[in-house]
Amino acid sequence: MSQHFIMSSLVVLLLTAIFASSGAVPSEVVVNDAVNVAVHSTVDLRSQLVHQKNVIALKNLGPADLNSYFFALNEPELRVVVFNNEHGRKLPFKKIEWDSNSSFYEVTLDEDVKQNEKYKLSCMITYANKITPAVKKRTFDEDQLVKFVGNVRFFSPYRTIFHHVEYLLHDPFLEVSKNATHLESTKITYIFYDTHTYAVDRVVIVLVKNDAFVVVKNIQRSIDVSHYGKIHVQDEVVIENNGVRLVGPFSGGKMKATTGWFYTHLPACTENIKFFDILGNNSKTQVYHFIDYITLKFNTRYPLLGGWKSSYVLSYDVPVHEYVLMDEEHYSLQMRALDYVLTDVVIESAVVKIKLPEGAQIKRVILPNSLTLENEGDGSNPDEQIIVLKGVNLFENYISNVTINYSFNPLYMLRVPLVISVLFEGAFLVVLVGKYFVL
């Protein structure tokens, strides 16, 4: 046995001991007598977000029926986790915090697993900010170097008999910190046998990735509900390329790691689309109509290189009858609090302001999981109801409906026409009286 192998084993054991002693496992976690017979993991590094799929075949070794499974993660990055059975149906779960970096997920199985029986489930994890710049700066003609750091082992409270993991790359890698079982230009494969519980073995993959790492720094969305026929929606968006920062002079060569065309999708019933930035109307837009949606293809006024920002405003109208349900004087607004922005991006900060018609009285607000309710009404106009929602670090599953139940007297809609009529009549009388006294 080589000295290198012995040192690697000692490091693994040391890291395991550190995790075991860093904090007691939460009392809610009662690990069953089960074993991971086989785990197949696929880690997709081909986009800005990292998508990992774990297909787990487990076996119940205990005498009691197995109806739950504990899945553990020791990655501190932002993530979204979804569990499915082998037929693709979602499995409910409860998240249990362990420490600042680690969490347990208690997954409720859709059937009782008897002793010595097997059960298969899958776990889909989407990570944000998992691929980071490998260097701080680059010049105009240099490639953008990025790195991925992850746990190549299957981190689990159960022993794992067989673990097969593949890292999928869009471009050939430059360096990998751990010897692989099988190596290809765009795929790195590892196979492990009899992995102990809570195993940690970090791998660093350095690769060239000349895609722009765009993030939405801030989006302010306003939804103005009018019972006169239209709902006006406006998005004010600030985007940034947070890849490796560009330094030095420009040259005549091809720009690397810069932005190209962007795509955003709108409802099929969208009308009066307007796109502009701080300098005014931007003509670099194209609209494509499909059966179920409308795609807006646009480009920023200037390309975004590493560290550069830009902003734009997108506004449009949708018919009110598509999103507001009515039952006498009771109304229900059901529409997306945040709609599709860009593909594979993180929204660092979001503010959504929903303005209901004057005279509306809010009864109930049902929020999407990604947003929190800040306040109802700004106090400036007691007849005007404004609901403010906020969210941070949103990605992947941020598109979901908000439901607002409110009451509204349709006679209130006559208020504005009556006021305008009275003003015109008053002005007409003033003119008549003025002419009478002049003559």
What does this structure look like?
- The protein has an 8-stranded mixed sheet with strand order 21-20-24-17-16-27-30-29, with no helix packed on it. Strands 4-7-2-1-11-14-13 form a 7-stranded mixed sheet, with no helix packed on it. Strands 8-10-15-12 form a 4-stranded antiparallel sheet, with no helix packed on it.
- With 439 residues, the chain is mainly β.
- The N and C termini lie far apart (117 Å).
- It is built from 2 helices and 31 strands.
- It has helices at residues 3-21, 415-438, and strands at 34-44, 50-60, 66-73, 78-85, 93-97, 103-113, 118-128, 131-133, 137-138, 145-151, 160-168, 173-176, 182-183, 187-195, 202-208, 214-225, 230-241, 245-246, 262-267, 271-277, 280-281, 285-289, 293-298, 309-319, 324-327, 330-336, 347-355, 361-366, 372-376, 386-394, 401-407.
- The radius of gyration is 28 Å and the shape is flat.
